[in-house]
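Course assignment 3, question 2. Fill in each field.
Student: A.L.
Task: Predict the tertiary structure for the chain below.
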Amino acid sequence: MSNQEEFVSLVKDALGHLYDYHYLDSHPLALQHWPQATRQGGTRAERFNRLLLESIEELNPPGTLSKDTSRARYYSLLIYRYVEEWELADIMRELGYSRSQFFREQRKAIAMLASNLRKKLPQETASGEGFAQTPPTSAQDDGLTIEADRILAQREAVDPVHVVQGVLQVVSNLAEQYGVELESDLAPGLPPIYGGRVLLRQVILRGLSNLISHPGTRQVCIQMKHVGDQVVADLVAQSGLPGPGSSSAAGHPPPEMEAVRRLVALMDGQWCGIEPTDEGFRYRFGLPAHDKRVILVIDDNEGIIRVFRSYLDGYDYQVAGATSGEDALQRARELRPTAITLDIMMPSQDGWEILQTLKEDPATQGIPVIVCSVLEDPQLARSLGAAAYLRKPVAQADLLAALGRLADVS
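Answer field:
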């Protein structure tokens, strides 16, 4: 097999695992071109995924050019097959291909994509032919770091108030067992936190659990306020006994809180250490406040959510996703996004029903909705209150243009 054939084969393999970040992180092409794993600019898997999507998008001809060119057909095939993960029969029916014609066109499409991708990849660092081997694993790449990186590969805006409310319910039984009173003091208008909902929950859960079970604790209060570009959290314990001691200064928490410090650091936050209070002590840390415009993508296909996240990366937008009607309505109320994109063909509750509910709810009726669907019915969409309509597969330029028009109107 020639070097070019090997490269095309590897590109096809990567496309088949486009949303498997664990697989992409150890893919031969990713290891060759990003041999040193780093969080700056995104993980190795994030960078590779983003470059693949960008290379596919480059095949999409501008709006002024014919959509019936070979390049346009290749673009649609790759979008349907790998980005939106359609069933093969549906793609063949949509494009009018026989089975043999589909696979013939797929080979050509991947070859063209590989040619685009090769020009965009960073300078190879491996010498000679072949591909670099997996670098040795750092001692810091333990289970906690790996799991955190996997979650943070899909960072999003997280509502801290909603997370705190959920965590307080979880620890209420533990507090009752220890006879500890739970309180919260959350400043009004807290911005979303930029990170991962699961990790934020673990940070708060671990901290509260540690304070509740500390000897002599009578009351535990979680406080949050917006300071500069951070949401600062104080987990305060009131007791008649001293806290863990001055040796647990910033950067040196007690052993039971070391995991919390590391999770805060992985979320690009700041561990501020342990501070004494008049009646006890508190843990303090800051997490990055979300200062981008939030776009809620409602689609039962998680692949579409990832695609839109990649499309908007670097454009001052942050994507949050919802894969069901119930989840969509809850997230819309929590996050109050700048705009919503809405798929129509969803199970249980279709997009028209979701759109009607959004427009009937005073909390969400003012949020502009962009309907994205393979169905051609923009008139119905607008009659139900949609602000715009985009036909799938949605190109990056069309999505950005639609969002830009909404921004001009507002």
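Instructor remarks: The chain has 16 helices and twelve strands. The chain has three domains: 3-135, 156-288, 293-409.
Grade: pending
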